[in-house]
Design a protein that fits this description.
Strand content: 15-25%
Number of strands: 4
Oligomer: single chain
Helix content: 55-70%
Distance between the termini: 101 Å
Number of domains: 2
Structural class: alpha+beta
Number of helices: 6
Order of helices and strands: HHEEEHHHHE
C-alpha cells in the first residue's frame, strides 16, 4: 500500500468515528428524553398496583378528636407594660366521649383562664417564649378543672396584645 492510501484511510476513519460519535450522542439524548416523557406522562408507571396498595395501607387513620371552643376573653392588663389589653381565644382538643362533660365545665374553665391571665405580669406576656409557657400552664390548670384524660390540648386561636 502506498502512503497516500494509508493517509486517506486515516482521514475516512476519523470522519466515520466523528459521525458515529455524534449519532451515538444523539441517540443517547433522544432515548433519555423519550424515557423521561413516558414516565412523566404515566404511559409506563414505575409503581405497580401492589406497591400502591401497600402505600395506602401504611397511612394511619386520624385519631378521633373533637374541639370545644372557649368564649373569647379580653383581659385588661395593669402595670407599666406597653400593652393595656390582651385578646385571647382558644379551643380545647377533647376526647369525643367527653365533649358534654367539658362543655358543662366551660364556665369554670373560662373563669380559671381569666383569673390566671389577670395574674400574669404584662412584661412576661411580651417575651418571645411567653406563649409556650402560658399554654403549658393553662393546659395544666384546665386538666385540674376537667380531670385528667378529658382534654388533650389547648389550641390558642388568638393572642393579641394591644
Amino acid at each position: 500500500m502506498s502512503d497516500a492510501t494509508i493517509s486517506n484511510a486515516g482521514i475516512n476513519s476519523r470522519r466515520i468515528s466523528k459521525k458515529a460519535l455524534l449519532l451515538g450522542l444523539f441517540l443517547f439524548l433522544a432515548s433519555g428524553g423519550i424515557g423521561f416523557a413516558v414516565v412523566q406522562l404515566g404511559i409506563f408507571p414505575l409503581e405497580s398496583a401492589a406497591t400502591k396498595a401497600t402505600h395506602k395501607e401504611q397511612i394511619d387513620e386520624l385519631p378521633r378528636i373533637a374541639f370545644v371552643p372557649l368564649d373569647p376573653l379580653i383581659i385588661s392588663l395593669g402595670g407599666t407594660g406597653k400593652s393595656k389589653h390582651l385578646r385571647f381565644s382558644a379551643q380545647l382538643e377533647v376526647e369525643p366521649e367527653y365533649i358534654k362533660d367539658v362543655e358543662n365545665l366551660r364556665p369554670r374553665i373560662v373563669d380559671m383562664l381569666n383569673s390566671y391571665l389577670r395574674a400574669v405580669r404584662p412584661s412576661d406576656l411580651e417575651e418571645p417564649t411567653a406563649l409556650i409557657m402560658l399554654r403549658a400552664q393553662m393546659l395544666r390548670r384546665i386538666n385540674i378543672v376537667t380531670g385528667e384524660g378529658r382534654v388533650r390540648d389547648l389550641l390558642i386561636m388568638e393572642f393579641v396584645l394591644n
